[in-house]
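Incident log, structure service

09:12 report received: a user says their structure output differs between two submissions of the same chain.
09:20 pulled the input from the user's history:
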Amino acid sequence: MSRTGHLARRFRGSWSRSEPNAVDVDWVRSQLSAGEWTCWSAMAVQDRRHSIEVARRFLALAPGAGRAEVAGALLHDVGKQVAGLGTLGRVVATIIGPRTRRLRLYHDHESIGAEMLAKVGSEMVTIELIQGRGPKAGALASADNT
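09:34 re-ran on a clean worker, output below:
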């Protein structure tokens, strides 16, 4: 799917406030450490739903992925919450780029998320995957952009 199509689908999904289902939430909890769970739980509901979709696609693309790599897929957008942008703010950030402090925070969400996860004791594999590094970074990028 094209980048535009992917973004349009994400935009439509971002308006829903429905929580992920209990089965998915239980699966997420089984994949995350206590600190990672706290970070994931603080994410916006649409980001939590998106993270589950991405992690499932990631596992299909990288079937040998371990717990730490699945955690990276689930937490790849955890740093976005720091910017405090709603749906329309995120659209603006995507279109115009990092022109203000908040928009810069949004665009730096990978490094911010890596710092957050380092503070809660995530494994280096998880942190590197969020930063777009490591042998399965391509699988995560594909899973996120599908």
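09:41 both user submissions now match this output. Likely a transient worker issue. Closing.
09:42 reviewer note: Residues 3-144 form one domain. The chain has a mean pLDDT of 92.
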